[in-house]
Amino acid sequence: MTDEDHFEKLKSMYTVAPINQDVFVGSEMKIENEYCQISYPIDKKLFHAGGGLHGAIYFKLLDDSAYFAAATTNRDVFLLTKSYEIQFLRPITGGEVVATGRFVSREGRELVAKSVLTVDGKIVGKGSGVFAYSKMPLDATVGYK
Asked: What would the pLDDT profile of 103-116 be if each residue is shown by its tens digit?
């Protein structure tokens, strides 16, 4: 399998996940070796009572972009988020948010990746995560076909 085939299968895995079909409609993914970018137009139905994007959405976009950047380096098994730390830097009240993840390193059986979240070129959040290998074969996951 070529790198491009693997990347397309990862994109398919992201696209068919039920949460992405229901909540993240309109998101777009670009994926390359050790890199993933997810763009998402902000929907006010995801705002908290204070008028800004809920932190759960920050987390999801940061985690996903880091996860898929790490997943580009693995063709065997489904990865699991072991830990993910996030920093909220600015509120998001509209526009399109872009999450950019980059693979950092492999430490034994764990992968490390970082990501940043931007709106109009300004960093609004950032995070880093550790991703562990599961026992589930990657080709057994929904969408990786």
From this structure: 999 999 999 999 99
